[in-house]
Specification:
The chain has a single domain, classed as Hotdog Thioesterase (Thiol Ester Dehydrase, Chain A, Roll). About 25% of the residues lie in helices and about 40% in strands. The chain is built from three helices and six strands. The chain is elongated. It comes from Roseinatronobacter alkalisoli. InterPro entries: 4-hydroxybenzoyl-CoA_TE, HotDog_dom_sf. This is Thioesterase family protein. It holds the Pfam family 4HBT_2.
């Protein structure tokens, strides 16, 4: 397996906190969502070119977040990821939110992306060129 892709870096701010004094679960989604956009570019498949070059784009079909350890204001985070599964019309990404200083895992995110034809408004087969790129980063044991 190749190294995991570094997708996003960020900082936890006091306004991310809830009444318990740690980052509220609703704030994890935007960090992971932004990381998923970066995933495509890091794979060499810029989302901005997917439709024009391949006639499809992807839509999120399922996202599962696992919360592991609390984050506090001032914590620096890094999100990394890999391709965890490749189907005929979909692929899955596995991402981790890590503490930038300690490397501790604070959350994981498993995302199913389905290839979508905007003309028919239906799922579409994955183009072979995209499959080949995804295969380079496949880490199924993740």
């Amino acid at each position: 397996m190749q190294n995991r892709l570094n997708l996003l870096q960020g900082v936890i701010h006091p306004w991310h906190h809830d009444h318990f004094g740690h980052m509220n679960v609703r704030h994890y989604a935007p960090f992971f969502d932004d990381a998923s956009y970066h995933m495509w570019t890091r794979l060499g498949l810029p989302y901005s070119e997917m439709l024009s070059q391949h006639g499809v784009h992807t839509v999120a079909a399922q996202a599962t977040t696992r919360f592991v350890q609390e984050l506090q204001a001032g914590d620096l985070i890094v999100i990394d990821g890999v391709v965890s599964r490749i189907g005929t019309k979909s692929c899955c990404f596995h991402m981790r939110m890590l503490h930038a200083d300690s490397g501790a895992v604070h959350a994981t995110y498993d995302l199913v992306e389905v290839f979508f034809d905007p003309a028919t408004r239906k799922s579409a087969p994955m183009p072979p060129e995209i499959r080949a790129k995804l295969q380079e980063w496949l880490a199924p044991h993740e």
